[in-house]
Task: structure prediction
Amino acid sequence: MSDIKPFAFVLMPFSNDFRDTYNLGIKATANELGIIAERVDEQHYSEPVLERIYRQIDTCDFIIADMTGQNPNVFYEVGYAHAKSKLCALITKDAKDIPFDLKHHTHVIYDGSVSDLKEQLLPKLQWMKEEFQKQKTETISLKLKVSDETLTNSEYTSVGSMNLSVNLKNNSEKRSPEIEAIYITTSDTWEMKKNDLVCPSEQSDDATKRHLVAPDLRRLSPGAFCDTKVKMSKRFWSKFGGDELKDNYESKGWLLVEIVTSEGTFKHENAIEVLFEEFPF
Result:
């Protein structure tokens, strides 16, 4: 029996200005990876269009959304997709089109050309496809969620902080193996706390730090999930460091998360892109 292809639901304005972006940039790139990408206007259905959009978001494997021009319908639909914990790839011609609180999500800023869009979108979709396949085959799946990104400035330092939620779910029909530990690998500039206590860590020769996080639950019933929350912080500027103080700092890269169980270790690489800005109030 052939593998079922993942389905990407595409959210974007239905304008001729986006025709090449959709057909040659998004759809063609998805097809190269064996992903079915569709917009609602090319589907056949009998229910009202909004109900169809919500149902497609509910059932799709991940979302591709063009945020160019800050279309209110697209923004609303992306918000609904995030509430449903869908993997979302956001694309735009202008970085200003992606709001502050969405900048940590996977996004592509392209120069308006189809070739540039394809070049940047291809690895993003490849990663999302691999994450989809992991969730379908692994006993314990993992999702990360970043929230409350803030920048705190003082006379002497500028420190960025964010909350990281590690969501684990048992996809099997039997009780999960015992979860012994969660390890999160970052660069050695990050500090991690759980319940206001610094997580134990070890530094490596390659300038990375491996943080030990105690899971909130040790065993998961069939279909059950748990959220383990930590707070991450990093000093971006020091008065004595010689660097120039900035109004905001962008941090992006990959987090390696290891779920250590009695039956083996599940490893996940997760793309993280976060913009830290000081709130003006």
